[in-house]
Amino acid sequence: MKKIFIEYPKCSTCKKAKKWLEENKIDFEARNIITETPTEKELTEWINKNGQEIKKWFNTSGIKYKELKLKEKLIEMSDKEKIKLLASDGMLIKRPILILEEEILIGFREEKWKETLKQ
Q: Which CATH code is given to the segment(s) 3-117?
């Protein structure tokens, strides 16, 4: 399975992660989170595989997250509603995301990526 790197091209963290992948000669397929927003089905599968709570998948520092006052609203939403909301707008999703066969990495923490990808 080819690694899928999901990014927002204007995001500085995504640029940093992409550069890191390229410098480490890690083959991947890039996907724009805005033009190819992950579907509910994909998100459900990835969230289950990742094992972290759905809240961790939200871009909590994003403008959209704050405008929608999601900090308060998420508490009362079901997991299915949260996933539907994430699938409705790529800007709500934390990025970058790296989809691997055995694991899903969200956000760019270089040490974690190094540990996972250099095995």
A: 3.40.30.10
